[in-house]
Amino acid sequence: MLDLVFSNNLSLVKTSSSVPGISDHAMVVTAIDIIPQCIKQKPRKIFIFSKAN
């Protein structure tokens, strides 16, 4: 089993360590300082052709 953490901005990664897990396997624990960015979409224009002149 292979646990990987990829990042293209190393300044966001606070800590990364391996913690003993089940049997001889270890678990990777990584703390990353990020805030999700939500992009609001503009409301779509819906044309009502039945009400057109």
From TrEMBL:
**Organism phylogeny:** Eukaryota, Metazoa, Spiralia, Lophotrochozoa, Mollusca
Organism expressing this protein natively: Dreissena polymorpha
What's the name of the protein? Uncharacterized protein
